[in-house]
Every structure is written in structure tokens, then in C-alpha cells.
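Write out this protein's structure.
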Amino acid sequence: MPNAKVLEEKKAMVANLVEKIKNSPAGVLVDYKGINVEDDTKLRRELRAAGVDYAVIKNTLIRFAAKELGFDALDEHLNGTSALAISTTDDVIAPAKILGDFAKKHENFTIKAGFLDGAVVDAAEVQKLASMPSKEVLIAQVLYSFNYPIMQLAIACDAIVKKADGNMDMKVSDLLAPAAAPVAAGSFR
């Protein structure tokens, strides 16, 4: 049986983990076996740059934290080697995207499960999150869709001006009307 000091330290670690998970919009639980130190260092650097806390945590500590949060569905995934990535920003996709890309390149590194907005999600859902475009790309796509009709109007106006060829006396109806088909030589009128 552990002494009182060790027990208190573990309780503090669980309380800290519970707080981190409560304050995070998303997280991913992975099996990290089979990666070397160099790859692990690169992964941690990339996660840190994206605002994601990543740590190897004992399954029992995660289990106690999950039970306290009502994440009982995580219990079945808490075996073997486990590491937890928790988003510290509003970006819910960052942990899934980075770890999903890393798992594709490293055969033994697997995603076990995750959590999103207070609910446990399975590995398939985490992979769906990983395949989504980043927030910046989504914003660019929305802005482009707003800008597209205006851009088409500008192109049409430019074509009308070019068709008028500087002739300011032409009527708009003349510009918009299709050009008359040329009469072939020798045809009847």
C-alpha cells in the first residue's frame, strides 16, 4: 500500500488532469509504442506549437480522471501504453489532425479514442476530425464563396466594356444581345 504522501501526489495529479480535460474542448488518447526518441521529440514539438499538451500518463490515473468526468467509455481503451493529447486552445481539430497524420506514418502508433465537447468519441470519429481542413482553410473557403458572385459580376462587366470597345453611344441592349449570325453567301432572304 502506498504511503500517504504518494497517495496525495497521485490525487493531485488526477485533480490536475480532471481540470485540464474540463477546460479543453478536445483530446485524443493514443497508444504510443513503437516510436523512437527522435520521432517522439518532433511530435511533441509540433503538438506544443499547435497549443496541445501531450503526456504519457498511467492508465490508472486516466481511469480515475475519466470516472470523475463521466467518461466511462474511455475505460475499455485504457490498456497497454497510453498518452493523452489535450487541446489548450479552441482548436478542436489540432490534436486529432497532428496525431492522425503521425499515426499514418508510424505503423505501431495508434489512436485509441478521444473526447470532444464533453463526450467520448471512438477512433473512427477522431479520424474524421483529423481529415477535416484546418480552421484557416475553412474560413478561406467561406470567404471565397462570399466573394465568388461579386467576382463573376466584375468579369461580366469587364466583358461588356470590352465588347463596347470604347463606343459610349451603344445601348446596353445592343451589348447584351447575341451577335447576329452572318448571312452566308448565296442564301435566300
